[in-house]
Design brief:
Radius of gyration: 24 Å
Largest sheet: none
Distance between the termini: 44 Å
Order of helices and strands: HHHH
Low-confidence stretches: none
Number of strands: 0
Strand content: under 5%
Helix content: 55-70%
Shape: elongated
Structural class: mainly alpha
Mean pLDDT: 90
Length: 83
């Protein structure tokens, strides 16, 4: 865990306090909430998205159905696979 110390202007602290009061948060908890939301947004924007082809999508759906029907076996490691 990393601790961060911030110095806010009076106006910034006032705005954070006013915003936080809506949720029952103090200024520190409000700042942490805003940083968490910004981090979450950055994380989602930086995650690559890969689209499946229609063939791959069909294979995935078939595999899920086979698993639900009990047509699969558990895999606990490469040695089991080789046996």
């Amino acid at each position: 865990m990393t601790k961060i110390q911030l110095t806010l202007t009076d106006k910034e602290a006032q705005l954070l306090t006013m915003y936080g009061e809506q949720f029952g948060y103090n200024t520190a908890k409000t700042a942490k909430f805003i940083v968490q939301k910004a981090t979450e947004q950055i994380f989602h924007q930086s995650m690559p998205t890969f689209m499946l082809s229609k063939k791959q999508e069909g294979q995935g759906i078939t595999a899920i159905q086979e698993h639900r029907n009990g047509n699969t076996i558990p895999f606990s490691g490469s040695l089991d696979f080789l046996d």
